[in-house]
Amino acid sequence: MKDLVEIDGSYGEGGGQILRTAIALSAVTGRPVAIHNIRAKRPRPGLQRQHLTAVRAVAQLVNAKVEGASLGSTSLRFYPGDIGSGTFNFSIGTAGSITLVLQALLPVLVYAPGPVTVTISGGTDVPWSPPIDYVRFVLKRLLEAFGLRFSVKLEKRGHYPRGGGLVRVSVPAPPRKLQPAVLAERGNIVMVEGISHSVRLPRHVAERQAQSATRELERVLGSVPIHIDVEWYEPDRDPHLGPGSGIVLWAITDKSILGGDSLGAPKKPAEEVGKEAALKLLEDLATRKALDRHASDMLILYAALACGESVLGGSSLTMHAWTVIHVIERVLPEVTVSFEEGGKVGRPFIVKITGACLTR
Do 191 and 280 reside in the same domain of the chain? Predict the structure, then answer.
């Protein structure tokens, strides 16, 4: 058995990102990890249901032995086995984020020996995590640059606090290795698209979100084409638990794609929701970098696994990004990471990453 890699869960942002990154890297490299001080910097330290689901899901995919996988646990040992394929079903049991569970699962699916389909129930549009439409329309396209192709089917939306969302992800032909990607500068903006949704709420909520976002985008982008779809259901045909609303925007450029999002909340006007998403997108576009604030940390892991040198330009270096780099250095010391531009938290950056060329 390979040596156990010790990881301090209080490093950097001190939240679930360390756990998800460590478990994913352990699963694909076969290197066991011990994580201590899990979520030490959060109001409720230790494993919550969303984190437990991520751990158990990855463990099932790789036939792992796990110690400490219980609610509230602040220490965990993960001993991975062989990666499997087939059909898997996981339930968070709350409105916990499906997209954050996918953060741990997707890198593992790259190396599956055959087709994989994963169905997860929980929250699709919840605070402090990327909404499912971001995964469907932004992250999915960015990961194609590394050679990972997959489908995301949104069966039902789930909002906080009731949840009830259902998502199905399929990887019909896992690539078994990743190619490097150059996503440094965004280039010219071709068009902006989006989805504004409301469930168990009046249709005008989704419409007002879309109208507000469009006004803000037009104010800055001028003649760039903008098209935002409105998603709404008749009350007697609405399958969601709800209520809830949100909007995800994405700018298609000639070199990349960037997203911006916002969620509805009680006493938060629909106009504010739409404007907030537009301002996030515009702020990231203004840096002229290829990756928005979410992708700026998400893609670092894939570059570290790829065969060759990747160049990533991010709109903002987040604490999540620093955390991912730290875990990579612990589990994959053969990876080299160097900043060509920036390197300070909260600022745009360009980073070169020479991957470990992991193959299975």
Answer: yes
